[in-house]
Structure formats: C-alpha cells, structure tokens
Amino acid sequence: MAGLLLSQSEKLFIVHGVQDDYRSDGRSNLDYRPMELETDLVDTATGSARLRLANTDLLVAVKTEIDVPSPDKPDLGKIEFNVDCSANATPQFEGRGGDQLAVGIANLMQAAYQSSQAFNLKQLCIFEGKQCWKLFVDILILECGGNLCDAVSLAVKAALFNTRIPCVKAILMDGGDVDLQLSDDPFDNKLLDVGTAPLLVTLCKIGDKCVVDPSAEEESCSVVSLIVGITGTPSCYSDQENLAEVGGKFSTIDMNGPGSVAPKTLKDAINQGIVAAKLLDKALAKALINERKENIRTKKSSYGFLK
Amino acid sequence: MPGPDLLSSQGLRLDGRRPNELRRIQCKLGVFTQPDGSAYLEQGNTKVLAAVYGPHQAAKSKSLQDSVVVNCQYSMATFSTGERKNRPRGDRKSQEMSMHLRQALMAAIKTELYPRSQIDIYVEVLQADGGAYCTSVNAATLALIDAGIPIKAYVIACTASLAWKDGEPEPLVDVSHVEEAAGGVVLTVASMPSTGAIGLIEMSHRLHMDYFDTVLSRAMQGCKDIEVILDKVVREHLAEGWTKSDDAITI
Amino acid sequence: MPLDYRRFNGPEDSVSYKRFTKGYLKSYDELYKESLDDKGVRKDGRALSEARSLFARTDMVSQAKGSSYVELRKTKVVCSVFDPREIPHQNEFSQLGQIFCEVKFAPFSCPRRRRPHVPDAEEKALSVALRKALEPTVCRHMFPNYQVDVFIYILENDGSCLSAAINAAGLALADAAVPMYDVITSCTVAIVGEKMFVDPTEAEENLATISPSTPINHGIITLSMLSELKQISDFTQVGSMDVECVVKAMDILDKECARLVPLMQKVLVANVLKCFETRKRLEEEANEKEQLLNAKMDEWKKLLKFT
Amino acid sequence: MAALNKEKLKEMGKLCIPGMRLSISNKENIAGPGTYELRGYIYATLCGTLKIEQTESEVRTVSVESPRTPSVLPKTGDVVTAKVTVVNPRMVQCSILCVGSSVLVRPYRGILKKEDIKATEKDRVDPYKCFRPGDVILARVLPMTEIHWYHISTAENELGVVIATAEGSPQGVSMVPISWSEMQCPKTLVKEPRKVARVIPENINHALFPIRDNSTKELEIEADK
Amino acid sequence: MTSHVKIRLASERVNHSVTTNNDLPRFYTPGEVVTGMEDFMRGHGTYAVDDSLKAAVAGVMQKVNKLICIRPRKNRYVGEIGDVIVGRVLEVQQRRWKVDTNSRLDSVLQLSAVNLPGGELRRRSAEDEQMMRKHLQEGDLISAEVQSVFSDGSLSLHTRSLKYGKLGQGILIKVFPSYIKRRKNHFHHLPCGISVIIGNNGYIWITPAGQTNVVEGDDDEMAAVELQTVSRSDRDTMARVRNCIMALAASKMMLDDTSIMFAYEESLKYDDVKDLLDPEAMLDVAFLTQHRINYVVEE
Predict the structure, then answer these.
(1) pLDDT band at B67 (very low <50, low <70, confident <90, very high)
(2) pLDDT-wise least confident of A33-47, D21-35, D76-90
(3) B54 to chain E: which residues are within 8 Å by CB?
(4) Between 3.40.50.970, 3.40.50.1450, 3.40.50.300, 3.30.230.70, what CATH number should domain C25-290 receive?
(5) Cross-chain residue pair E130–D115, CB shorter than 8 Å
C-alpha cells in the first residue's frame, strides 16, 4: 500500500518505541490488536467471514462451482484466491488503483495454500478425472489499517471453516459425461477440513527489530517486511483427541518492500513468526468453535455491519 | 402481458409481500472510521456499503472553479450474485450505474458551496437481490448525511413493476430479483420525495402508456415510505452520539 | 486481449496429447526415482549439492544500454536494461527512483505453449519477485522520479529461472552503469524430504511442488544475496517445511550465492576491459580523423592566403 | 592474453565493480561520484576504474570512472547542454541533451524560468530577447521541485546560448557573438539579441567559426588600416 | 516471549454509546423546514427555498442573533481566524507550503508567514526558496494558527509565534473536528507530565512535556533535540493518553483538556496500557469520564 506520509521525527519516535519493545499504543512487539470475527453473513456464498482488526476490515466469501480437474492432477480439486480492494477503503483504490496490492496478496495466498500439507485439495474431488469442486475465495478489502496479510489469512481460514459443500447423492455416467445429483436438503452437507490451513504472519522490520501486527503508521516506517505462512494445528479445530500433532510448518515465506535483511534477522524473524502463528491459530480456533456452539444453541442472527 | 404469476390468488407476491409493501430495511451510519462518511443499508437481501470521502482538494486536472467535482464509483462484489461475477467493476453495467448514481446525487448535493473541491462516493454492493441501484442511491444518501455534506433533501430511489390481478393492473413496489427475472417491467425512480423532484427515471421492458402513471406513483410512494424509515434512522443516529456536555446550542 | 477473430483460434485450453500416452501420470515414487538414483546422482549426472555450470556474458543486445545473457545448461535468459525514463502516469514526487521489471517467457521456452502478448500469472509473479530482489541493490536515490526498465526474456526454461533472471539482471544493470550497492547473486534449491536439490531443473522443481502423501518437507526456496554487504535482498519459499529445513537450506543457498560472486566479478571485469578497449579504439580513430581534418584545414587556409 | 591484460591493467589503474570496498571513509578520504559510504568505508557503485584525486591539501576524493555514460540523471549543480524548444513570456522550455561532458541517451525536459535567465535586472528580462527555439544553451541545474521537469538557470556569465542560427539564415550557419547580449550571422550579417555564454573555445567547431574577442577584433581593424 | 492475541465474536460487539437519553435537543435532517420566517439569516448547513429556511445537513440548530446554522455531527474542518491547528506539510511549492489540515481544500503556509532562522525580516530571496525544504519538508507536522480564510474557503496559516512551528517526536491522532471543544487555549501541559496540542481541525498531537516545539536555534541543537530518545515512562503516559483519546472519540465524546485528564485518571485502574485497546475497557473509560463530566456540570 502506498505509504502514509510521516515526518522524520514521528518515524524516529516509532523506531525508538520498537527498540524499547513499547509501541505507540502500549503494545509490545509481539502483541496483536483486538480483532472481531463473524462468519456466515453472505447469503449468496457457501461460506463467508468478516474480520475487523482495529481499522482493517475484510469480508471473505467462498463460492463453490463444479469444474473439471486439471489433467496433471486428476484427483485434486481447485482453489482460487481473488482479492478486490474496494475504493471504500481509500480513494487510491479507485478504478484499477488497488490491483497491484490485490494481485500481490492473492499470489501470496495461492502460494500458502499450494501444499497439500497446508490445504488438502483431495477433499474437493468428486469423481476422479472428471469432476471436482472449485472454491473461489473472494476477499474484499473494505478498510485498511495496516497488517492486511495477516487479517486476510485469518478471515480466509474462518470463511473456509464456515464453508459447507453439498453432498453428492449420485453420480450418473452417461456415456463419457458425468451427471451429478446434488442433495437438495440444505442441511445435508459436509464441512471442509481446514485445520491445517495456513495463517500468514507479517513481521515488519523497524529499526533492527521485527514487530507483528504493524499499524499503518508503523508500516510506513519500515523498508522491509517478512511474510511467513505457517500451517495450522488441526487439533485446535477438532474435538478428537488423538490427532497427530502436525502443522507449524512453513508453507510460504516472502519478503516485501524495497529493503534487504541480514541472514540472522531473517532466521530470528521466522522463529518469531512461528510463535505468533501458533497463538493466532489457537485464538481463531477458539473463536470459531465458540461461534459454532452458539449457533447450535440459538438461531443465528447475523450482525454484519449493523449494530 | 407478462406477470400474471407475479401475484398469487390471494394478492400476495412471490416473497409473500403485499403489492405496496417494501422489503425490510435495516441500516447503520458511520460503519467505518477512515472515510468522512459511511453507511450500510439492507433492503431485504440487497446489501450495500457506501463510503464518502471529502470534500477534499480536487486534482488540478479535474478541479472546477465554481463547483465541486462529484466522483462516483459503483462496484459489485464478485460474490454478490448467485452466479459468481468475474470483475467487480469496470464493465459496462457498473460504469453505467456509476453514471446514474452520480446523476441522481448531483441533483441534491449543493455543488456550488465547494469550489475546487471533490467529493468521492464509493458504493460496494455486497449482495444483490434486485434493486441494487436503488439501495446504492439510498446508502449513498445516508453516507453523504453522515459526512455532513449539505444536500437539498434526501435522495431516495425505488423501483416499481406492474402485475395483473383479476385482469386489473396492480403496481408492485420495491421489486426483488425474482420478480425482476420474471420479465416484467421495472421502473426505477430516483427522487427527492420531500420536494417531489425527480432526479432520474429509468425503465426496462415495455409498458403501456396508460399504466405509466400508476406505476410511477407507486414508485414515488415507495420513495416516500423509504424516506420516512431512513429519516428515523438518521435521527436515532444523531441521538446516539449525543453527549450532555455538548455546547451546540448557544442561543 | 488482442485476438485474431478472422481465424479459428482453437480452444482456450488444450491438453497435450502426451496426457493420453502411457506413463504420463507417473506416481510420486517413480518421479522421485527418476530424479535421483540410489547413489545420490541426479538425472543429469550432478551430485545433490552441485549447481549447474554458469555461463554469463554482457553486451548481448545492441539497442539496450546494458544487457546480459545467462545460461544454466538448458535455462537461458537474456536481459536488457535501459536508461532512466519518466514514469508514466505518476503525479507524486518521490525521492527514490523506480525499477520496472518485466519477465517474459519465449513461446517456445517450455513444453507448454505460452501466449505471446498477455503476461500470464507466472510471468507477473516473476516480475514482482525480480523487482523486489533488485530494489535494495540499485542506488535508487540517484534517479528520483524516474524509472529504470529491466526486461528479461527467458529463451528456455529448465528450472531456476528466477535465480537466472536475477543474476542476469544484476550483470545487465552493472553493464548499463546503473549505480548499484553490490553485486547481486541468486540461487534456488528444491527440497524433497531430506534431500536438497541445489539449482534444480524443471523436473526437480515439479517433484518438489507435488505434495507427497507423507508429511515430509518439500518445496522450493529462492534466495538472492548482496554478498559484500551480507544482506538478503529477496527470499521466497513455497511448499511445506519446518524451521530446521529452512535454516539448513538458507545456509546452503548462502554458500552457493557466495560461490557465484567471483564468477560474476570476472564477467564484469572482462566487461570493463572490453569497454576500455573499445573506447581506446574509438579515441584513436577520432584522433586520426581530427588530424586529417586539421591537415585539410591547413590546406584550405593556405589556399585562402594564396588567393 | 593474460600478459596483455596485465599491461592494460597497469595503464588503466585499479578496476572496480559494484560493492567493492575502496578505502576508509574519513576526513582525508571523501566519497566522490560512482561511490557510496557505509559504516566508515567507501564502496564502488559502478564498474570502472578507480580515480583518487587530491582536491585540497590532505583531502582525497575517491571516485569510480565508468567507461560508459553512467545511468544517472542531471543533478543539482550540474552544467547541462540543452536545446530550446518553446519560448514564452514566462519561461523557456528545453530538452536537456548532455550532462557535463557525457551525452544522455534520452533527453530530459528542462524549464528555465524568466527570473533565472540573468543574474542582474531580473525583472526586466524578456525571454524572447534571450532565447529562440532551436538554440543550444549551457545551463546549471537547480534543485528539483517538480516531477519530470528540471529547473535550470543561466544566471552566470559562462551560461547561456552557445550555438544559434539567425532567422532566415541557412541551417548549420551559427551566429557569432558580438557582445553579451547580441549575436551576428556571419553570412547574412543579421544581428539578433541573445543571452550569450562566454565559452572558451576548445575544439574543432570553434576552429571553423572562431569566436573573436573584441580586443583581437580591434587589432585586426587596426591592422586593416 | 509473551504475545497477546484476542479474537472476539461479533455477538460480543460493544456499543460505544454513552448517551443518557433524557434531554435530547431537537434534531434537523436535510430538507426539513427550520423556520418559515423571513427575517433570519442563512448560515452554514441551511438553504433558502421560497420564503422558508431548510436544513441541508443532519444536526442541531445553532442560533446567534438572527443567524441560523445547522451543525452536523461530523464534517470537514471549517477554519476560523485564530484557530489553532495541527497540520501536515504535503507539498513544497514556490514561496509556500501546502498543508493538510483536514479541511476541504489544502491550506497554505506562505514563506512570509514563518519565522525563519535568523530572526528579522529579510528579503525572501531565491536562496530562501531552496532552503524551504530544509525548513519544512513533505510529511513534516506543524502547529500553526489560521491567519485568514480565502474567498474559496481555503485557509492561510502562520507560525509567527514561538509556540507554533515544526513538531518533533510524538503521536498524532486524527478525530473528527466536531469532537474538539473550542477553548481559549489548545496547548496543554497535562499534570501527568506530557503535553497535548488539541488542534481545532481534529488533529491531536501528544508529545513529552520537555519537548517544546523546535522553532528557533541552530541546526545542530535542533537535530540533537529531535534525536533524543523519549524515556520509557513518558512513552507509557503518552500511549495511555493516546488510548484514552481513542476511547473518548469512539464514544463520540467532546475532547478538551478536562475530558482527556478525566479519562486518563479513570484509565489508571487498568495497569497495562494495551488493555485499553479492548472495546470493553474503552467503553468503561468513556462511560466513567462522561459520568464525571455530568457530575461537574451539575455542580
């Protein structure tokens, strides 16, 4: 994002603050700002989530379509990320103004979800070689207050957690063509297994230290930030006890911004990223499971942008 | 004549409404902190977010000496419709919508107050279930009010259609997507109900001259009804932000 | 998209006929065996930690200010760099100049045919990665408000094309006398389990991208270094791997990048020598011409006096 | 080949490539063009040869000279050669062709404002009486304030028009300066006003069209007598 | 390493309103007739149709003699001569700076309206222009006073006083200008040991008390002051004040030194400053502050 204009002494103040592990709003370098999450608020999508992290506001919707698997990977489904920077966020995004940022985030998400250890595309297969589900994950950025990547990954994971795929009742083979019969019952559907879905952690290098969850002001003080995608821990998302402790692996690492880093900083930062990602994953799982429990008890009413 | 099936034998519409009944309207002003004004509006299942930036300094190339530049962008989220859209904006339809939006709002904004400035109005349709344009106009009006930009009166848009009941014409207000798709006439009116001025009229499909007035007056009635609802919300919003220490009244 | 509508363009998406031959879809193990035999020798005879020999030269394209050609056996890349020019559609004052990168695959560069005009997603991603790698290398404050164009044309792709492109761009920038902080070198490693394929071919890259059924490390890491300053200018990773693996790969890449530096230096020194030679030759020629001209002048003057 | 190279190397001096550490940076050693300073050392930014110049007593400027035209833009304070493209009452627009002695690959746009034309009597300057489109001028670059436009100044004796053709004269016939503010066509003898630069002749063009000082002119006239 | 991550659900969303719904004033909405009488003067936020005066914005009426204004809940800053503002330099132009002051047009700071190092009035020469960027460059924050308002509504600023000028280290908060209470003094040294400048334009500047504006003095001295590290305790107080102001603004409360100080005192029961980022704590602080203000007003 085009940086905020800051004066040299404001930047200095922020840099000194990071050095001192005490930021302008009282957080330490490893603290996140409070977030708010809601799922299932877009009726036209199969799964959706809205995340608000301080001023950053996102809406993610998952739409499912039936597609033909690629010939190289006949037993895998497809997932596609698409980011749209709404001009509501800033007038700079008007027209095609937000495209560069949008493509950057979409590519990052695509890379993070590439490995089957991050997201198993086999669960989207309907009929090997013929039919599979294609998930369109549409991310709409409504307001920017720093730390977009982390927020996007959290909202995407929540939206996927909320996604219900209709059950296939029957597959009819008519010559070479496949005819699917989907269940009409809206409650007859399956949930996706998203426990391992990766979360992105942005480590913003300010001065000599790295901070998580940078605000827009902090982002403009930094010349380079490191984005790590770390796979989730499925045991957080499930009641089953005997799940193998997997996850916590890097699914993508990328550098952003015009600066460079020393190898040691990079090594420290990725370790810091793992710690942060595990905490994020736990908090997200807790929130999602709570919400699901709440919805079972009471009839869900969507808050959305009201209230 | 299309549309005999738009009304049931009991005189109810496909979604159970009466012909002159609006869909449920819910809204909120000031949803975001960064824009100068913002609003969220739901009309039935059509959901729209609007944000207003400005008035701020206009770019040199656009700047007008005697009035404000109003800049609108209408955009539909890719997931807003049943079928996924490929592009949120830039296609012909949304460009046309942006133009219509601008036209309707320009009629109300007191443009002469802000020379060399610019007002940006951005509308994001999150869910479209018929009447997305109307909801956008209404949401934009609320966002303008939230931003404290002077307007002559509420700009309200509403649609109306025509159905047949026992051989008699029966106009329908606030057309939903299903009714739109059924192929009847859809008349869109953007007006300032309190002054009676009309900013924009658009109609699709064919309608006999004789029935135009009835359909139009039903749409206008719809606008008036919506205005009452929105006015109430605006007042509530003002009251909510009211604190006692406010020294506003200095008589 | 410019499409010729007067002719039949064929389907948007086509499948190679090879897909229907036997043994097209090899199993993971088969692919693995193909890439690496029991003795730890790769298909092209290299050891795991052995990079392909690098051939590089400058001055390839006469129209460009600076250009280079880099070859890693079957991966062949041409790069040209042009003088700073105005940034189109820019209306904000920026203290730092910009680098515009465009990576293009030749239509015949790989088995899959490429669309000649429209840049596809991979090309766009490579362009962004290249820009990010070069930004910390170039002294951008020397040309505020202007941009330097870097064009990469990939003649043949057999893996590691991003590192090849970065290496080529570094040489071409130096050749164009664009001020730079350091020589930039880059290298890629493909990871499959415990094995690390340095400077992988395309087949090895593919193998590393396929997610194996067991939760082992896999993925690709590309790193570019400014070796004198000991700074990492770009780091990209995809796949799934744990911290130890990333750190180990970093060390390998670090060494490999350092190994390339003398090679690059040699090329650049040769370039300088050649430049001086040409300049000397040109100067000599100019002197000769001037002497001739002076002689002529004297002749004329004599004639003038005479008349 | 190697021997040859060695010989040449001696002749050229020390070769540099970007990132090479050249010397310590202190009061005695200053980073010059083609170098940068980092953590107390001077490093090279270009491929080329090392030049160490003794500028003042005990101060040495370390710089790198590239065999090619460096890919840099006109800097504040540089003297540039430019061609006038547009003249209007407020300013003169021109395209910058050379910086110092190096020719630019592409021209850059320059603006010469009315008040920057002359050092004295700034208010009474008329751009039309100083420049005409097509003139080649020498100018100094002012600090950059606008994107894509270099502000330049000719408010020095040595800056101003160097090559100009009078109206109606054939192409290629340059006028000869006859005073600070006038030039004359040697062929048609037309006099035109210009902001003339005082140039010290140094190459062949000046040999063809020598710039005569007024003093020598007088001598000649005397001789004629 | 302790990290702090909190994700709440929308169902736990906090309503920031601290309203006591008993004595609400009369609100006007656009298009509503304010008065039918002719002998009133038309002020901001109103327009005349035929013989009646109508509201153009949604808000409350403000009547000064015969001038009727409708004041909206929030809008862009409308400057008045003598207002104290905090602004950011956007552009360095010839003989003037363009300054962002949250008004509808960029404000102007003329080169002749600043105290340049050297003191006395000098002829503003070409060298000065080149020095302009040294004095104030893009991104710099300044405090200034509105000198005059141009006919198109844009503001002309001046910094010809020791208390105005370039700002050093600190935190800037942006709130809507209507939340700022107009006072005689907008520069406050709070008892908690820090200073705030509450700009009329809604920009609030928080800075350690020792750091007065860097206006005069030679360059070295200026640089030294600017580079000093702010001590941890000052930083802590500043962060607390920042979060308190954010809490008050989220509840749409009026801001002045009293409300900020009240909020600061109420917030002291939260030991950790970062706890004040939680919506519940924010509401709590705002509510208690409102309570105290009500109490003071009744006294």
Answers:
(1) confident
(2) D21-35
(3) 76, 104
(4) 3.30.230.70
(5) no
Shortest Cα–Cα distance, D200 to chain E (Å): 29
CATH superfamily, domain A8-296, is: GHMP Kinase, N-terminal domain (3.30.230.70)
- Cis, peptide link before residue B55, omega less than 30° from 0: yes
Which residue range(s) make up the domain with B153?
4-240
Cβ(D19)–Cβ(C183) below 8 Å? yes
Rounded to a whole number, what is the distance in Å from the CA of A178 to chain B's nearest CA? 22
Put simply, whether D96 touches E (Cβ < 8 Å) is no
Q: pLDDT tens per residue, chain E (299 residues)? A: 456 788 888 777 777 777 665 677 888 999 888 887 777 888 888 888 877 888 999 988 888 888 888 888 888 898 889 999 999 998 888 778 999 999 989 999 988 888 776 554 555 555 566 677 778 888 899 999 999 999 888 899 999 888 888 888 899 999 988 888 888 888 999 888 889 999 999 999 999 876 554 444 445 555 666 677 888 888 999 999 999 999 999 888 888 888 899 999 999 988 888 889 988 899 999 989 988 888 887 76
User: Could you say which of B57, B241, B245 has the minimum Cβ distance to residue E297?
Assistant: B245
Q: What is the CATH number of the domain that holds D119?
A: 2.40.50.140
The answer to whether the beta carbons of residues B122 and B73 sit under 8 Å apart is: yes
Count structural domains, chain E: 1
Give the closest residue to A236 by CA, choosing from A293, A286, A296, A295: A286
Q: Nearest CA to CA, how far is E218 from chain A (Å)?
A: 17
D89 touches chain E (CB under 8 A): no
- Taking an 8 Å cut-off on Cβ atoms, the answer to whether B115 and E153 are in contact is yes
Residue D73 lies in a domain: no
ipTM: 0.85
Give the phi and the psi of residue E39 in degrees, each rounded to 5: -85, 40
pLDDT at res. D131: 87
Q: Of E297, A52, E20, which Cα lies nearest the Cα of B241?
A: E20
Say how many domains are in chain D. Answer: 2
Domain presence at residue D71: no
- A99-133 pLDDT, tens digit per residue, is 888 988 999 999 999 888 888 888 888 888 888 89
Mean pLDDT of D166-172: 77
Among residues A281, A111, A270, A103, the alpha carbon closest in space to that of A202 is found at A270
E173 in reach of chain A (CB within 8 A)? no
For D35, the domain range is: 2-65
Domain ranges, ordered by start, for chain A: 8-296
The domain spans of chain C are 25-290
- Cβ separation of E133 and D142 shorter than 8 Å? no
Burial class (CB in 10 A: 0-12, 13-18, 19+), C44: middle
Contact state of B251 with E59 under an 8 Å Cβ cutoff: no
Between D115, D142, D145, which is nearest E92 by CB? D145
Q: Which residue has the higher pLDDT, D114 or B119?
A: B119
Does residue E84 sit in helix, strand or coil? strand
Is residue C222 within 8 A of residue C175, CB to CB? The reply is no
Facing B81 at nearest CB: one of A44, A142, A143: A44
Contact between A48 and B77 using a beta-carbon 8 Å cutoff:
no
What single DSSP character describes residue C39?
A: T
A246 close contact with E: CB closer than 8 A: no
| pLDDT at residue E225 in the model | 62
Q: Cβ of B234 and E19 within 8 Å?
A: no
In 3D space, the residue among A204, B112, A255 whose CA is nearest the CA of residue C221 turns out to be A255
Pull the structure tokens for residue B6: 């738009």
d(CA A240, CA A304): 31
Find, among E289, E249, E287, E285, the residue nearest to E270 by Cα.
E285
